[in-house]
Amino acid sequence: MPAIVYLEELMATTDAAHEDGNPEVVNLVDSQAEKIEADLVRTSRTYVNSLEAEEVDLYQSGSLNVNANRLNANSSFLGLAQGDSAEINNSILLTGKTTELEANNSVIGGIYSENTNIGENTRTGILVSGNVTGSQIQSFMLVARSVQGPVTTSLDTRQVALASILAGISCGAVLLLGKFLFRRK
Fold this sequence. Notes:
By secondary structure, the protein is of the alpha/beta class.
C-alpha cells in the first residue's frame, strides 16, 4: 500500500535538516505529496503536485508543476516544467520552458528552450527553440533559429503564419457577426 506524505510532515523534516547547514534532500518512494521545496528531490512511483528544487530526479513519477535548475525525468508525467537543464526520457511533458533540453523516446506538448536535442522516437507538438539538433526531429509546429538534422513537421513557418492570419480573421468575423446578431435595441 503506498504511503501518503503530507506537506506538514515533509516541511518539518526539511526545516530541521536545513538548520544544520546540510542540503535538504528528500527521497520519496510510493508516496504522494502536495508540495515539496528542497535542494535535491528523488522520487520513485510518486506523485507530487508542486515541486521546487535545485535538482530533481523523477522515476515512474508524476508532477503537475516542477521548477528545478536540473531536471531528470524517466518514465514520468510532467504538467509544467521550468528550469535550466532538463533531460526527459520515456516521459510525457505537457509544457515547459528550459535553457537546455534533451528528450529521448518522449512526447512533449509544447516547449520553449534555447538549446534542444531531440533523440529517437520523440514527438513534440509546438517546439520553439534557438538551436535544435537531433537524429529525427518530429514536431507538429517548429519555430527555430537553427536546425541541425532531418525535420518532419505538420506545419512549416509559412503555414504557421497563414494559419495565424486565418484564425485572426475568423475570430474577428465571428465577433462582428455576434455583435450584429445580439445587439440591443
